[in-house]
Amino acid sequence: MLFFATPAPVKSAHLSSSVGSRLNTRGTTRPKQSALMSMDDEILAIDVGTSATKAALYCPAYSSLARVSRHTHDTYAHGFAVTQRPSNWLSAALSACSEVLRDARNVTAISVTGQMQDLIGVGDVPDLLKDQALLYSDARAVDEATRLSQVTGAEILPTDLLSKLSLLPCPSGQDYILLIGGADFICYEFTGRPNLHFTDATTAATTGLTQHPHRKYNTELFKQAGLSSFIPLLPEIVPRPIPVGRLCARIANRIGRPELAGIPVVHSGGDAFSVTVGAGCGVVGSGCYVYGGSSGWVGKTIGADSNNLAALGLAHAAVDSATIVAGSVAAIGACLSHASATFLQCTVSDLSKLAEQSDIGAAGVIYVPYITGRRCPPARAVGTLHGLTASCNRGDIARAILEGLVFSLFDASEGMQCGEVSVVGGVTESSVFVNGISAMFGGAKLQERDVGVLGAGIIGAEALGLDTMDESVGSLYRVPEKERTRWMHAFKRWKQIVSHMEAIW
């Protein structure tokens, strides 16, 4: 369970002051439950993911999700450019909400999470951003990154938001605004496009544009880059998850529930934060988890002053004194889709079934999965399929794909002292993947619920002062010691190939 300190008022939220503060059992200050809310209330949770928008009803009294709707997005990739249409996010969110609200009786708030480190424009935007969001993996700003690295003295990558801002003309006036996450955009639309716009500390931290504890932009960096004029266009960073406005009548009508107009809309943080909370790892000492979805990482929450041995340290959107560390391997979903279409010509589901026909070690086939680079250094990493012989079959290749993903996640966790982990995300449907994670980490607790949208529900409930249930989901699974030894041997072979490749990256 998370415990939020009472935030400073948000100017454009226009919410009543009926929510005060009280001390919880751990002695931390948190919002007091409004007299208008009860433990039977439902939170409409929304997760704007890279591949789908999901909606669910969360009931704090039962720590449950009523159901989830999924609507896929189209991603447009041309060379180094990778974009999606924010209008599709909105359409998907409206459709998903309409479906999940059909039998809802007592919805009292909406809580929104989503993908991070995007560049989204709203208003009279430059041509580059006309109904096009530049995703976190968009790497077209190669020349801009080179120039910025020289003028700032820091390593600036083409995927960094500073590089992407350099692609835009210098703003002559504030006739448009910029957002940096999927939740920013949906909150902005759902609250009626207010004058102020918001993001969270976790999302802001991914951009590299902030300074610790990531509640303020690094104005000196913008000055060095010659991009200070963009700061007023960027969203305000809320100190922790809070209501940023109320659902406007226009959106309430479009989802078919006009009576919901006026309920609070909570910005529940970027997906790295909501997944961490949904996995039960939102507080210091709560353990590690492995997430396998469109992206993939090993994550945990540590104290802000702890030694950070992981590749990425993200701001904790609710607590200044905590940090989410993540050993990230970038694109698990892209690896599976690419392998299915290129090597095996089958569906991702079929790939998982094919992999079960092979044995640990994949008959010597080794897959290094960095086809979209490597978020753990070095970013310039590439992938490979090694060890092919005439005796290899489709099952061996499929198994090598999944083993490569398992090994890359274990490799990315170096120094995190994980031990047993919770396993979450769509890839949990693969028995090979789950067995591999269990073997490498010494035990895996499988959580089949959609933890991103679950986390948004938990965060929204607690931001409004509702107590949430601590519920343990899934059972711990361990593979036999002999099987674990074989997995470890296969990992050593995989690591040898990666070490040889690192010399030429």
UniProtKB/TrEMBL annotation:
A molecular function GO annotation: glycerol kinase activity
Pathway named in the protein's UniProt entry: Polyol metabolism; glycerol degradation via glycerol kinase pathway; sn-glycerol 3-phosphate from glycerol: step 1/1
Carbohydrate kinase FGGY N-terminal domain location: 43-278
E.C. designation(s): 2.7.1.30
Keyword Oxidoreductase: no
Record-linked InterPro entries: ATPase_NBD (IPR043129), Carb_kinase_FGGY (IPR000577), Carb_kinase_FGGY_CS (IPR018483), FGGY_C (IPR018485), FGGY_Carb_Kinase (IPR050406), FGGY_N (IPR018484)
Keyword annotations from UniProtKB, A to Z: Kinase, Transferase
GO terms (BP aspect): glycerol catabolic process
Enzyme class: transferase
Alphabetical list of Gene3D superfamilies matching this protein: 3.30.420.40
Residue stretches making up the Carbohydrate kinase FGGY C-terminal domain: 280-461
Homology family: Belongs to the FGGY kinase family.
Name this protein carries in UniProt: glycerol kinase
